[in-house]
Specification:
single chain, 266 residues, alpha/beta, Rossmann fold, nine-stranded mixed β-sheet, 8 helices, 25% strand
């Protein structure tokens, strides 16, 4: 497979996730992070920056039948299990639109769920309809292979240190992705760097190999590069991969250049 972008730590591949995953070697990654389609694009309305906007993310996020969504999740999770090392782990982020299917698919495809992380967004958009509670959380599932040989990596001491000397709980609080992380372009479901940095630090040692089959604007790869891991990201959108590539290029630039660029007008 040809790389859309490549540097000493990162590789971006343009293509269909299923096709490109099939071309990866067995047990070639130590961790997978996946933020699959939520299937919530239904022509409804949401709020962004104080303005009313469409909830539609793109054709890739259009809802299908329950059976079709679940079959989709089982297929990509099955491939991720194949490319994970015996001690590797997978993280899946999602909202209630898709995360329950992902949880069942994990168990059906031979995974054991380790944690159900609740990411509480401190600045969620308001609920415009006012007919239910404000949606302010997402779920992140963490799982390993359901295999007696599997001994997953968990940096307990670092997580405790980050949490002020106390055991870290499975509720993580933090803001939505800041504007500064979207300077290279916007992705509708872009995750903040702090979230991926914590996930990678918690479940991999330095030098580990990280895979994101729906990499979007590249947050997983940027976080991996910052933390001394190598990564491969796959996405079917050249528009989003171009954003990811630019973000990765900037990671290799000196701080003075980054400061100059971000302070320029326009």
């Amino acid at each position: 497979m040809d790389a859309y972008y490549e540097d000493e730590a990162s590789q971006l591949i343009l293509g269909d996730a299923f096709k490109e995953l099939a071309g990866l070697s067995d047990e070639s990654f130590d961790m997978v992070f996946a933020d699959p389609p939520y299937f919530l694009s239904n022509d409804g309305l949401s709020c962004s920056g104080g303005k009313q906007v469409s909830v539609n993310k793109g054709e890739w996020d259009r809802g299908t039948s329950t059976d079709e969504k679940h079959d989709f999740n089982r297929r990509w999770i099955r491939e991720c299990r194949r490319v994970l090392t015996i001690n590797g782990t997978i993280w899946i982020s999602g909202s209630f639109h898709n995360i329950y299917s992902c949880g069942m698919a994990l168990e059906q495809e031979g995974f054991r769920i380790l944690n159900n992380i609740t990411w509480q967004k401190l600045n969620p958009p308001p609920n415009l309809a006012c007919r239910c509670f404000t949606h302010s959380t997402e779920t992140i599932l963490w799982a390993r292979k359901d295999d007696k040989r599997a001994k997953h990596y968990f940096n307990y001491d670092l997580m405790k240190e980050i949490n002020g000397g106390k055991q870290m709980k499975d509720v993580w609080e933090g803001p939505l992705t800041p504007k500064a992380e979207k300077e290279c372009g916007k992705h509708p479901t872009q995750k903040p760097l702090y979230l991926l940095e914590r996930i990678i630090q918690a479940s991999t040692p330095e030098g580990a190999r990280v895979l994101d089959p729906f990499v979007g604007s590249g947050t997983t790869c940027v976080a991996a590069k910052r933390l001394g891991r190598t990564s491969t990201g796959i996405d079917a959108s050249e528009e989003y991969l171009s954003i990811a590539a630019e973000r990765l290029k900037r990671e290799g630039l000196p701080l003075w250049f980054m400061t100059r660029r971000t302070s320029e007008p326009g």
